[in-house]
Amino acid sequence: MADKSTVLEGNDLKVIEQNKDIYRQYIQEIFNEGRLERLEHLVSSSYVYRDPPPGTPPNAEGVKQVVIAARKAFPDLKVTIDDMIGEGDKVCARLTTRGTHKGTFFDVPASGKSIAMKGFTMIRIVDRMLVESWVQNDVMGLMSQIGAGSKNRLD
């Protein structure tokens, strides 16, 4: 017989699936559609953004800044959830971000190149609101794809 601490009740499973749906909605509406007005409906006012990019506020304003910068540099930005699991109040996902580099990104002018960046996110959701996140993206791989640091040394 399974240890009681590892047995999920029906309500627990329902909450986990609900949390996964909220995260899917967050990715679709905020990142893929750029509907920043939806942030206040999905992200708690006490939200903590762990590991934000340098100079980015560690709160919902930081998420907003990241989305604006990313969608400006990659107007066709599309984040795909490759895999997702949930346990308790947390959802973890492997993601792929795709787009075409049509605007300046971290001081790198538009290259016109298509990118695919892998990432991993863990989100904590309480009362149907994102309250905390940890995000790790392969930014170095992305920068390499758009030609950052690849100046021709022959001139």
Corresponding CATH architecture: Roll
Number of helices: 4
- Please give the number of β-strands: 5
What is Rg?
Answer: 18 Å
Residues in helices, as a percent range: 25-40%
- Strand % is 25-35%
Mean pLDDT: 92
Q: Strand arrangement, largest sheet?
A: 1-5-4-3-2
- Describe the sheet with the most strands: 5 strands, mixed
Helix and strand pattern: HHEHEEEEH
Q: Specify the overall morphology.
A: elongated
* Alpha-beta content class: alpha+beta
Low-confidence stretches: none
CATH class: Alpha Beta
- The domain tally reads 1
**CATH fold group:** Nuclear Transport Factor 2, Chain: A
Please characterize this protein's 3D structure.
The protein has about 160 residues and is an alpha+beta fold. About 30% of the residues lie in helices and about 35% in strands. Strands 1-5-4-3-2 form a five-stranded mixed sheet. The longest helix is centred in the N-terminal third of the chain and has 23 residues, at about 10-30.
